[in-house]
Structure formats: C-alpha cells, structure tokens
Amino acid sequence: MSPISDILAQKDASLDPDLQWALGNYVMDSGQLLVVELDEHGDIRDTNVTFRAQLAAFRHIHDEPLSRFLVSEQGEHPQIEAGLSYRMPIPYLLKGANSGELYLFHAYPLRQGTLLIGELTSVAQADIDVIERMGHLAIEMSRLVRDLRKTNLELARANELNRRLAHTDPLTGIANRRYFMERLHKSITHAQARHHRLSVLMIDMDHFKRVNDRFGHAGGDAALVAFAQLLASQVRAGDLPARLGGEEFAVYMPDTPLSAAMESAERLRIKAVELHPIDANHSITASFGVTDLAEGDSAETLLKRADALLYQAKAEGRNRVIAASATAPGD
C-alpha cells in the first residue's frame, strides 16, 4: 500500500485532477489542514505532519486504528465512508480522542482506501475565526459563509445519525446483530492478514425469563439497558459490544489475547452483580463464553465455539466465565 506521497507521485487516477493538484501543492504542506489516509480496513496508512503534530505527539503512525486518535462526536469508533469520485465528499464531525475537540473532516475516495482532510482549528473556534476573517467583507457574504458552514455541520450530524440508527439496537443503544457481524467479518479478515490476535465474548443474562415474569417487560428492558451500558462503559474504543437478540450479548476485542479477554469477562461478571436496575434486592448475573481467533476461523466458527463455552458456563451453574482456545479445554 502506498503512502499519500507515493499516491501523489503516481498520479492516482481515482482522484479528481483538481483535487490531486490541490493535494500536491497546498493540502499536504500547508500546515493548515489535517490529512490522514485510511486503508480498505479503516486503519491508518499515512498522515501529514500537521496531523501528527496536532493529534499524535509528532510520532509516525502506521497500521493503527483511527479511533486511537479520532472518534465520533459520541465518542465511538468512527465509521467512514468516502464520497464518490468527481462528486462532493462526505463531511464528518470527529473528536480528538484525547483532547475532546471537534474537527470537521471531509472523506474522499482513493483506489484502495479513503482520504480524510480536516481543518486544523476545532469547530467551535473556527466559527469565531470565520467571522473575524470575513469582517472586512460585505454582510451578505459573511452570512453566506456561515450558512454554508452550518449546512456542512448539519449534514455531518445527519449522516452520523443515519449510520447510528442503521447500526444500533433501538432498546439498548449499542450495536445490533447485523452491524456486529459486519464488523466482525472485516476484523477477522484484517487480523488474519496481519497475524493479529482477536478474542470474542459471548454473554447471556441468567434467568432472564424470571425477570420478565416477576417485574414485567418494563423491568426486563431496564435490566437489558443497564447491562448494555455496563458493557459499553468497560470496553475499549476499538472493541465492539452488541446485543445479538433477547438477553444475548457479544463483544469482539481486536488485538487481544485470550488471557486478557478472560480477565475482561471476569471483570464484567463481577460488575454485573453490582447492578440493581429494577430494585435494591434484585441483582443481575450473566454467563460468559470466551475464545480467541484460530487459524482458518470464520466469524461463524469463532462464534459457534464461544457459544458452546457459554452453554458450558450455563450448565456448570451460571454466573461464571468459561474460556478456551480452539485446541485447549475450558478453563
């Protein structure tokens, strides 16, 4: 995969010629724009100096997830889709993972991947700067600039909302089954191509039917929401918790060995008991099956193995973690 400089030198035919000229003569070396190139998996392939200075403490970045430096406005792993060649790019509002500042980026397509170009100044400050810079122009021109900027921000938020609705479980607010499977397939392909570790947690809330029978569906929904919030609060930005259906949940954890995933599952199991979403006398317990990616695994075989370990945890008394690799017995 070529870095941005190589793409420019080769005159990437997938780029608009005007965009290519702008990249070579202004964007990369201007010091005013943040530029980051993503590969087809959404990982960082290359950045310009301004991006590294603003968001990465001047260090070079390669093969790292974008979420280590930029997250969505809601603090989640950003899902980037590029605009069409020779068409308008797609705007995104992204937040510095450490600074919390919002930046307006635009996504352009490359032959293999995506190019993000963003403003160096955070969004809140940029609104003030626009007014100051345009003060010497006519009032109507200033109003036009602000209106165009507002439209871009609103479009970015609308795009993010639409993506969230398509990918989110409506009750709990975490990922739904369809999005989880889509992301898991891509993450497995990525991990196998680069020989990275990946682990999966399959989780089932114990005796959930009793909760519905005793407290009604409102009580059951409260328990589901509380448990989903626990998952979301305890995993890393690059992990993905999801509700697969009913009281069944899952988490996939890239770059994570089995031992670390098991520790995370045990921590979640203990914290779940501390939840009392319905009343002070009722606590939540859950059973966990944990496994890691083996050579030749697909998403289906990986989840099937984790599911078998989950049912082993159920059979052995519930409220416990059972972990095993593809060739090792349950621990």
Description:
This protein is α+β, with helices and mostly antiparallel strands. The protein has two domains: 4-166, PAS domain (Beta-Lactamase); 177-323, Reverse transcriptase/Diguanylate cyclase domain (Alpha-Beta Plaits, 2-Layer Sandwich). It has nine helices and eleven strands.
Layout: helices, strands, pairs:
Blueprint: H1 4-9, H2 17-27, E1 33-38, E2 44-47, H3 49-55, E3 70-72, E4 90-96, E5 102-110, E6 113-119, H4 123-133, H5 139-167, H6 177-194, E7 198-205, H7 208-234, E8 240-245, E9 248-254, H8 258-273, E10 286-292, H9 299-315, E11 321-323
Parallel strand pairs: 10-11
Antiparallel strand pairs: 1-2, 1-6, 3-4, 4-5, 5-6, 7-9, 7-10, 8-9
Average residue-wise pLDDT: 84
Question: What is the count of helical runs?
Answer: 9
Could you tell me the CATH topology label of the largest domain: Beta-Lactamase
Q: What about the largest sheet?
A: 6 strands, antiparallel
Number of strands: 11
Summarize the structure.
With 331 residues, this protein is an alpha+beta fold. Helices cover 43% and strands 20% of the residues. It folds into two domains: 4-166, PAS domain (Beta-Lactamase, 2-Layer Sandwich); 177-323, Reverse transcriptase/Diguanylate cyclase domain (Alpha-Beta Plaits), CATH 3.30.70.270.
Which structural traits does this protein have?
331 residues, alpha+beta, Beta-Lactamase, Alpha-Beta Plaits, 2 domains, six-stranded antiparallel beta sheet, five-stranded mixed beta sheet, 11 strands, 43% helix, 20% strand
